Amino acid sequence: MNPLCDRCGRVVYPTEKVNCLDKYWHKGCFSCEVCKMTLNMKNYKGFGKKPYCNAHYPKTNFTCVADTPENRRLKEQSKMQSQVLYKEDFEKSKGKGFSVVADTPEMQRIKKTQDQISNIKYHEEYDKKMMGGKPHNIPCNTSQVSPAAFQPPGASQNFNHEPTPVPVQAAAAAPPPSAGKRYRAVYDYAAADEDEVSFVDGDVIIDVQQIDEGWMYGRVERTGQQGMLPSNYVESI
Predict the structure, then answer these.
(1) Residues 6+ apart with CB under 8 A from 183
(2) Which of 89 and 142 is assigned the larger pLDDT?
(3) From CA 169, how far away is CA 190, in angstroms rounded?
(4) Which domain of life is it from (predicted)?
(5) Partners of 177 in the beta sheet?
């Protein structure tokens, strides 16, 4: 049984039905409550389950609260509770002069870089001291001393080495786009607005997306046109 239009109270047939705001309307009856301008699914605004245009959409006004003794008492009570909580948090945090730093990969990299710089400066200063003064406890016959004995600790390390290149993994292939749902038209439909699509009985509608209970968005496989279509004119396949 066909439903009744919420505006005029007459029967709404499928070819002229608009399902919106949990009600059924004729396309001509789906208009603004104030100026009666005809609306569609794109430019209407609902308020109290009634359609309005953008100019006559009801505005929300602020409500003034009377400054009564009871309200002043509640305000003072809330203020005192806030001060008590602030003092409790202050006492808990007293004496804690440090902040926790998250151990992120960026922080680990910075720490490693600082360690390397400190190590390099240490060896530079050690080399300057060795070159500036005569080292103690060095044998007179230096030909019998291994050259490694004059190397400062860690001098054999190469701090300017090039990092080993990490093999780049091939990016994973993107998954194929979803084909969407497919529907078959059970009635002929002629587009009433520029954002709608026309089709005939038996056409296959692909890439269908549900907008609401009464409307869908899809593409007619036969013509390639895409747009909005009424959901009661098609069936799933």
Answers:
(1) 204, 205, 208, 216, 218, 234, 235, 236, 237
(2) 89
(3) 52
(4) Eukaryota
(5) none
